[in-house]
Amino acid sequence: MRILLVEDDVLLGQSMVTALSRQGYTVDWLERGSGVVTALKTEQFTAVILDLMLPDIGGFEVLKSIRRAGYAVPIMILTARDEIQDRVRGLDGGADDYLVKPFALEELLARLRVMIRRLSGATDSQVEVGDLVLSLDRQLVSCQGQELKLTNNEFKILASLMNSAGRVMSKDQLQQSLHGWEEGSSDNAIEVHIHNLRKKVPGNVIKNIRGVGYIIEK
Q: Which residues form the OmpR/PhoB-type domain (predicted)?
């Protein structure tokens, strides 16, 4: 699950990248608003965390640009602006949530899980695809009640496929779900992870669409 963080406060941005990474998220971080739409155009993100007070373009304008471009990615506004009119403007402008600084990390994570649940169509903290159950709060996957013993990279790949159930994910998208904009693994490494997942996940649920990528059917 890949998060786009848009935050110009370096210390806060670094701490959020660390905290979210520890929870199993892959985080890409922008300090300006001008590159957000381009990032969404070229990459696939599970959610966006957007500060309002950016050094180049205001967060409200970034939000408007995202929605005007047709991207339905869940967006959480994270800002020190706590006036009611700002909250209303943000939510009416297309944000899915609005969290005021300073905030508790636990609340941020909980609100992020809610947005991801809505994206996947789940009504609680679990995403279910066939016999597979992904627990967003516990960061684990089980099959028919048995927890799957996965590596961190295997979990990220399986979570990405489950959250995109019914849609093909390319090798490049899976690489980005692991490493973001950092130098990532090779196609061969993705194939190795998929091979190991297929041995651990019963039922041959991960399908290879030759020349395109991988899919878990709904």
A: 124-218
Instruction: Looking at the structure, tell me whether residues 50 and 100 fall in a common domain.
Output: yes
Assess whether 62 and 147 both reside in one domain: no
Domain count along the chain = 2
Residue 105 and residue 12 share a domain: yes
Please measure the distance between the N-terminal and C-terminal CA atoms of the chain and give it in whole angstroms: 18
Identify whether residues 150 and 73 lie together within a single domain: no
Which tokens belong to 13?
Answer: 């941005």
**Residue 122 pLDDT more than 60?**
no
Q: What is the pLDDT of residues 147-205, one digit of tens each?
A: 999 988 899 899 889 888 888 988 888 888 787 776 555 668 889 999 999 999 988 89
Beta strands in the chain (DSSP E): 2-6, 26-30, 47-50, 75-79, 97-100, 126-129, 132-135, 140-143, 146-147, 206-209, 213-216
Look at the block and give the residue holding tokens 């297929």: 198
Strands (E) located in 7-105: 26-30, 47-50, 75-79, 97-100
Q: What is the C-alpha to C-alpha distance for residues 172 and 187, in angstroms, rounded to an integer?
A: 8
Q: Parallel, antiparallel, or unpaired for β 75-79 and 47-50? A: parallel
- Last residue of one domain, picked from the residues 85, 120, 155: 120
Helix (H) or strand (E) holding 2: strand 2-6
Residue 79 domain boundaries: 2-120
Same domain, 140 and 61: no
